[in-house]
Every structure is written in C-alpha cells, then in structure tokens.
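Supplementary Methods. Inverse-folding protocol.

Structures were first reduced to a discrete structure-token string of length 421. This string, shown here, constituted the complete conditioning input.
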C-alpha cells in the first residue's frame, strides 16, 4: 500500500482507537501488564504466599499459582479440562497471524509431530557439526560487517545476529540443509517471524474492527508468509515424490519434516502438513532464540570465565561423536542464565475449557480464562537458591543437574509431566 495512504488512514483511525483501547478494551491495570507484567506478578505472589491470584491482561484474565499443591492438581487434570491448545490460540492468534486455526483440544493429530521431533532430537549429534558451522558463519559475517574500531573491539548487533542464526538452525532441523542455506528463505522467514508476532499482539490489544487494517499494514500482501508456506509445501511434495519413486531405503530421516511425513497418512493434503510444520517452526524459533541471546549476554558480562569456557568447548562442540557431558561449565552457565533471566516468567499455560476449573482449596478459574505457573517466583526463592537474585556461574556446577531435566516445579522450563514426551 502507498505510504501516504497508510499514514492518512493511521491519522484518521488512531485517535478513536486509542480512546477505545484505553477506556473500553483495557482498563489501566491490564495496560500496565504490557509494560511491567513480571513485576506486577512477582509483587502479588509475595503478598499472596501459597494462594493463587489473578491479574488482568489485555482481553483476558491471567490466574497464577506457585504452590506444590496447585502444581500437583494441575498435573493430574486432563488437557480436555485445562487446555494448552486453547492457550496457544490465545497467545499466537493463528487465524490472524498465520491464516489458519487449530482445535481447542490436543487430539491424536498432534502426536506425529511430537514423535518426529523426538526422532530427530535422538540423533541430534548428526546435525551438531552443521549447527556449529552455521553459528560460526553467521557470527563471523556479523563481525566482518561491523569491523573493530581503534581499540580492536568489534560490535555485533546481538539480537538480529542470534535471531537469524537460530532461525537457520531451527530450519535445518525442521526442513533441512538446503532450506537453511537458502538466503531468500532465511531473509523472508525472519521477517515473517517478526510480522506474525506483531499481528498476534495487535489482534490481542486492538478492537476487532481495527485489527484487520493493522494486520494489513504489518503483513502487506503476505509475501513473506507465502514464501515460507510455499517452501514447506515444496519440501513436502519432494518427500512424497521420493517415497513414491523408491523402495524403502531404511535410511534415517534427516529432518523433522521427513520424520513427520513417514508417520502421517499418505492422503493428508499438503496444506495440512504445511500448517502443522509452520506452527512448529514458528514456536520453536521463538523460545530458543531468546534463551541463546540471554546466554551470550551472560557469558560476555562474566568475562573472567570466557577463557575457561573456550577451553572446555574446544574439540567438543564440532565433533559429532563427542560427549556433551564434557561441557559442565557451559551447562552451568546456561542453567544459571535460564534461572536468573527466566525469559518466560510463566509456564504451563492452560485455558479452562467450557466450564470453570476449581482447585481443591476453592480457587476458581472461570471458563475461557488463563491459568499458568509463575516459575520466576520459584527461581527467585532465596531458600532454594542462596542469593537468588545474583548470577553465580558455578551454582549448578557439580550439582548433577542438566538444563534439559524435568524434575518438577523446581525446574519447570519444559512444562510438567502432562506434556512430557
Ligand atoms: C527455549 C526453548 C524452548 C522452551 C523453553 C520450550 C518450552 C515448552 C513448554 C513449556 C511447553 C509446554 C509444556 C506444558 O504446557 O506443559 C512446550 C511444548 C512444546 N514444545 Fe517447546 N520449548 C522450547 C523449544 C522447542 C523446540 C526447539 C521445539 C521443536 C523443535 C519445541 C517443540 C514443542 C512442542 C511440539 C510442544 C507441544 C508438545 C505437545 O503438545 O505435546 N519446543 N515447549
């Protein structure tokens, strides 16, 4: 759309929209959640102790708990009663951001992709050297395009570099090397990540009559999104042709898409595969990028450990046969970074489906409202982590714990056992 037209439309629509957003759609506390939600939740958790509580968020209400009793009860409640799929719809606004929707309930259709991820994760060591090569290539390129100044210090824009590199690694795992090395796919897909995120947020906070206009301003004619979908569709068709042409080779699938295609019925339409794979690609690219950005920030703000970290990684990361347990300092850094930054202050997000959900202590979550575990509260508890607010690189060293552990509410980054896979 012509820029002058866009600006004119914005000037006309913005004042009534602002008034509507401030006074009708949001009351001031839910607006405040957008700017300081984490502080609000932590302060309320301090006041409430073990009791559950709630905060208004734009367009909905978020109920939070921190106690073991609530954790156990939620863990034993069916996903048909407290649904993670309904929450993901509320969060990602797929209809607006992706152009398709999914059901409120986690049905059997969701399982083939989970199995496919498991297959590729189990053989991740095969992909590891290529992941390291991608990181090296992207960081070297960023260094070259930002040459060092007089004091030999080069500046690399952290977020765009990591976002690009981690999106490539996710693409490698899901779609394969050729797609991850396609510059046009990578450029358009990273733009699509940003656009879809903005559309989802705009859809949540703006009145429904205005969000299509804002969506059009952000996504234009959906060129980036269409390119991503067309690429996934091509890879799907490629797999189908290869399968039809050859005998079963018993070769291990190299991508999540291939592992997925081996388990789904042959008559599934390509668009159905594209939507599922796109949802996975989008969600996987998001979390892992923030986590990596925090880790790099923490490494470079604790410079005295850099030499030891380099020493430890030498010969391990780029060797597919090496044992990842040989990186205890890096693992400890990652865990302390996850604990202190805690990029998602809440986890195990659920929506009460159809009727209110009531805990045994009488706390009730009305139908359609969101229930989550405030994990940041646990990681900031001085009785569990001495001087919990401080970053201690060695805190987890020798603890026998790993970042990927799922022991329960004391390390809830990956959810609870309801969705364990
Ligand atoms: C920092 C990175 C990540 C974090 C913190 C994270 C965390 C989570 C959490 C908390 C859940 C929901 C658990 C629950 O509600 O009980 C989840 C679900 C899921 N995650 Fe991740 N995840 C990450 C990266 C990834 C990646 C890289 C992939 C795939 C390649 C992935 C695939 C999935 C899938 C498919 C589900 C849904 C599982 C199901 O429905 O059974 N995640 N993740």
């Amino acid at each position: 759309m012509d820029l002058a037209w866009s600006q004119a439309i914005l000037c006309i629509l913005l004042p009534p929209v602002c008034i509507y957003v401030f006074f009708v759609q949001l009351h001031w506390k839910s607006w405040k959640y957008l700017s300081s939600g984490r502080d609000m939740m932590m302060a309320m958790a301090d006041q409430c102790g073990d009791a559950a509580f709630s905060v208004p968020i734009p367009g909905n209400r978020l109920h939070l708990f921190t106690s073991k009793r609530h954790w156990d009860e939620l863990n034993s409640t069916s996903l048909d009663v407290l649904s993670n799929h309904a929450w993901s719809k509320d969060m990602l606004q797929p209809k607006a951001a992706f152009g398709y929707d999914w059901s409120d309930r986690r049905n059997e259709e969701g399982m083939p992709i989970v199995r496919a991820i498991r297959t590729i994760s189990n053989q991740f060591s095969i992909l590891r050297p290529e992941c390291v090569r991608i990181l090296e290539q992207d960081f070297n390129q960023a260094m070259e395009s930002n040459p060092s100044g007089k004091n030999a210090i080069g500046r690399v824009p952290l977020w765009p570099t990591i976002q690009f590199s981690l999106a490539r690694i996710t693409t490698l795992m899901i779609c394969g090397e050729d797609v991850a090395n396609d510059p046009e796919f990578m450029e358009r897909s990273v733009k699509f990540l940003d656009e879809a995120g903005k559309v989802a947020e705009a859809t949540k906070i703006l009145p429904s009559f205005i969000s299509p206009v804002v969506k059009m301003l952000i996504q234009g004619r959906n060129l980036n999104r269409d390119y991503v979908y067309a690429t996934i569709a091509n890879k799907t068709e490629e797999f189908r042709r290869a399968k039809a042409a050859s005998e079963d080779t018993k070769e291990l699938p190299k991508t999540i898409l291939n592992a997925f295609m081996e388990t789904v019925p042959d008559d599934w339409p390509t668009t159905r595969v594209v939507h599922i794979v796109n949802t996975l690609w989008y969600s996987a690219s998001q979390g892992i990028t923030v986590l990596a950005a925090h880790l790099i920030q923490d490494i470079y703000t604790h410079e005295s450990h850099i030499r030891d970290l380099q020493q430890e990684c030498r010969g391990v990361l780029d060797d597919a046969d090496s044992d990842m347990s040989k990186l205890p300092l890096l693992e400890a850094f990652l865990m302390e970074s996850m604990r202190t930054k805690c990029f998602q202050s809440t986890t195990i997000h659920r929506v009460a489906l159809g009727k209110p959900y009531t805990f045994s202590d009488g706390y009730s979550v009305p139908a359609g409202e969101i229930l989550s575990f405030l994990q940041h509260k646990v990681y900031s508890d001085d009785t569990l982590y001495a001087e919990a607010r401080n970053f201690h690189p060695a805190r987890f060293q020798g603890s026998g714990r790993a970042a990927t552990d799922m022991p329960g509410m004391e390390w809830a980054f990956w959810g609870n056992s309801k969705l364990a896979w």
